[in-house]
Amino acid sequence: MRAQLLGAVAALVVAALLALVAIDALRLDERVAEDDARFAAAPMTEDLWQTDEVLPLGASRALLGLDPDLDYRRAASLYTRSRPGEPTALNPRRETLRAEATRQLAVISREDPDAHRRSQAAMLLALLALGRGDLFNSAEERLQVLRGAVGNLQIAVELDPTNAEAKRNLELALSSIGEPESGATDAGGTTDTGDTAGVGRAGSGY
């Protein structure tokens, strides 16, 4: 009898938890859709995709597997707000944003379980590096940065061969350092980033 009672209580607890997860899933879905729309309309908006859930400690996000997707969205927002391609020397805040975007995108490019998001992150890393041209101190430093960008772009292409933006950016980067495009996929596990037209827009991976 006691075992039956405990089983009934456990079933009620599980049902209640599942109901709370369902509520959180609905709220998260609505929040993501709303903030996606806000980002599309005003890309410089801060604090997007911040969640407010019923269950504590991000339990619902973990159960639903949403954290990697939200992390990518936030990193892409940082990328956009850092205004890649614009001068940074006289804007320390912009450089701080770029540094944080670089850190987050590097983690995503290595650890995200989704190859498409990893590809996008690798591409954005390359574009961030290429966008710091005003800080190059020498032709040698510029060449080193270009080669690093080519490596990330090659990684992006290998992770997602359909990433046309990364392929275009890879071609441009290779032409800048005078290397043949045929070498784009010969860098042992690397692919490409994305074309420089995407520098001012971080939401292309959504």
Short description:
The chain is mostly helical. The chain has helices spanning 2-41, 59-64, 67-81, 92-111, 115-130, 139-159, 164-176. Residues 180-206 have low confidence and may be disordered.
Q: Could you please describe the fold and organization of this structure?
A:
The longest helix has 40 residues. The chain is built from 7 helices and no strands. The protein has 206 residues and is mainly α.
Mean pLDDT: 81
> In total, how many beta strands?
0
Largest sheet: none
Count the DSSP helices.
7
Strand content: under 5%
Label the overall shape.
Answer: elongated
Instruction: Calculate Rg over CA atoms.
Output: 21 Å
Unreliable parts: 180-206
Summarize the amount of helix as a percent range: 55-70%
Secondary-structure-derived class? mainly alpha
Query: End-to-end distance, in Å?
Result: 53 Å
Order of helices and strands: HHHHHHH
Key features of this structure:
mainly alpha; 206 residues; elongated
Helix-strand blueprint:
Elements: H1 2-41, H2 59-64, H3 67-81, H4 92-111, H5 115-130, H6 139-159, H7 164-176
Helix pairs in contact: 3-4, 3-5, 4-5, 5-6, 6-7
